[in-house]
Amino acid sequence: MPERLTDMLMDTWTPLVILWITVLPSIYMAPMNQSQVLPSGSSSGLKRLTEEQRVLNRSKRGWVWNQMFVLEEFSGPEPILVGRLHTDLDPGSSKIKYILSGDGAGTIFVINDKTGDIHAMKRLDREEKAEYTLTAQAVDRDTNQPLEPPSEFIIKVQDINDNPPEFVDGPYHATVPEMSVVGTFVTKVTATDADDPVYGNSAKLVYSILEGQPYFSIEPHTAIIKTALPNMDREAKEEYFVVIQAKDMGGHMGGLSGTTTVTITLTDVNDNPPKFAQSLYHFSVMEDVALGEPIGRVKANDLDTGENAKSSYDIIEGDGMDLFEITTDAQTQDGIIRVRKPLDFETKKSYTLKVEAANIHIDPRFISGGPFKDTATVKIVVEDADEPPVFSSPTYLLEVHENAAINSVIGQVTAHDPDVSSSPIRFSIDRHTDLERQFNINAEDGKITLATPLDRETNMWHNITIVATETRNHSQVSRVPVVIKVLDVNDNAPEFASEHEAFLCENGKPGQVIQIVSAVDKDDPKNGHYFLYSLLPEMVNNPNFTIKKNEDNTLSILAKHSGFSRQKQEVYLLPIIISDSGNPPMSSTSTLTIRVCGCSSDGIVQSCNVEAYVLPIGLSMGALIAILACIILLLVIVVLFVTLRRHKNEPLIIKDDEDVRENIIRYDDEGGGEEDTEAFDIATLQNPDGINGFLPRKDIKPDLQFMPR
């Protein structure tokens, strides 16, 4: 084979130098597209140095190598011969030296510098490194001078099937709805093979199911898992364990394989209706149960889960549809029956209801399977309870006149025991609502009587609470509000709305309105107030004033003449009789005070006192008060001035007789007793500073002197 390759090169080109390669027979089994020798028209020729001619001739190389091959994982007792380098410059005298450099040169690949043989020293793995780039060169062994330019070539590690497929993402978990049709997509798995996908079938994978049939299938080349059986029911079996195999070499004998597991879970669909655990339920309830209280639970089981198992409950038939209601417990999906209206054992002792449970979410695909609902019967028995008394009315409104007599009957309340035993009832007043004890009640018949007089003008409404208690069981108590309205009686006389004082101008005209007065009445007649005004009989022919009734129920006071004078009469008193229209009518006399005043020309009151006449013309009362205040201020100033002058004339030196201070003088002489009156000078004790002729002054602060201890 090497000789044939050499003949082909010699027949094609006649170069000065030829470099050829010898490789192992197994390497020549490489594919034809990976040629061992390729022509090159651009590379430089090899150089040859002969003894006769020292001139370095450069010629064009006719053939150069491009790549070599070596099988991976190849091992033996000796290094593997990859190929051989040779040049015609070598006459066999061993003057040529072959040099190898590049990836793995000297460690993985070693060249025999004499023969040019290249050996692989280690076991190679294509998955670690697929190819090596090396450079070969022929040099003179003695001088190390290059005989030709370096040439680059590649050694490729040829793949063998030494890696099994691997499922990097396994194990897998997938879901698929139950009751799915055949061929429904479930999931897709992926295996990888580290071998060369280009060379041979080492990385060509085929998938198959080892476990999981006949429920599921897998596409051999795409690894898509699909359902293989129709109508798989989650309620029968929810989870499936599937084993998937990936085999290389296209699935043929001798290929390597890897496996993974896929856990497939069937998800729920609403394919099951709710079903009551029993067809008949019995419950009992006391008649006095509070509204909204649960009295029992019913349960409709659903084999589905989640939203598909949710049901709603409803009462569709029965004689207590308005008295009971049913709701759904969101946590347990139970139907809770509650009392909607009060129950009465004496009226009806049992009820029969028909309840229905229906799925909330219905899958249209399974609607043909039947109605997704179920019904059950519920019997409810009402039990008797000791109930409190019941009043004939929830509230009472009574009316009484304010002049009603003591112990007169205002009204009556009634109550009864609703129980079969029918206990007698006793009535009482809750005194917290009648603190003044204005009312009483008969404990036997419930008649309310008046205990104290009532006054509508003081309090028109009274609110009391009546208590009914069973005589056999005092814990059974009921209460009812009673509103008592006090009706009006004409027992108050009308009177002036306020204390009126009228002012009459001296320059007034006859018929002039002096004052308009109004009246009030504490009573409240049905048709409103209507007052009658009149003068006292002896004042009917009053020469000074007259009265006139207005349409708005008020009274106008008019002057009969002019020329009123304050000096003649300053004040006039006018008694007026005010009567109402009640039955019987009530009246009172009110006196109007009319004061004569001095007015300006336009009728504005200026002064109403007689003393104004004695004042100087043009001098008002305010001016007189101002003058008086000034006089008083001047007097105060004079008094202060005199006081200050007196204070200045006082002496500044303190006299001996004015000094009342006590001074203590310490001396070492022994006293002579009571008879010794000349041992010391008393004046010195009174004023020690006076010894030296120094007298303290009142107008300066004295210096403090401290005696040594």
Automatic annotation (TrEMBL):
It is a single-pass type I membrane protein. Keywords: Calcium, Cell adhesion, Cell membrane, Cleavage on pair of basic residues, Glycoprotein, Membrane, Metal-binding, Repeat, Signal, Transmembrane, Transmembrane helix. The keyword Metal-binding applies. Its main location: membrane. The chain crosses the membrane at residues 613-642. SUPFAM superfamilies: Cadherin-like. One of its GO terms (biological process) is cell-cell adhesion mediated by cadherin. Residues 87-167, 168-276, 277-391, 392-496, 496-618 form the Cadherin domain. GO terms for cellular component: adherens junction; axon terminus; catenin complex; synaptic cleft. It is found in: Cell membrane. PROSITE patterns: CADHERIN_1 (PS00232), CADHERIN_2 (PS50268). It comes from the Eukaryota. GO terms for molecular function: beta-catenin binding; cadherin binding; calcium ion binding. This is Cadherin-8. It comes from Dryobates pubescens.
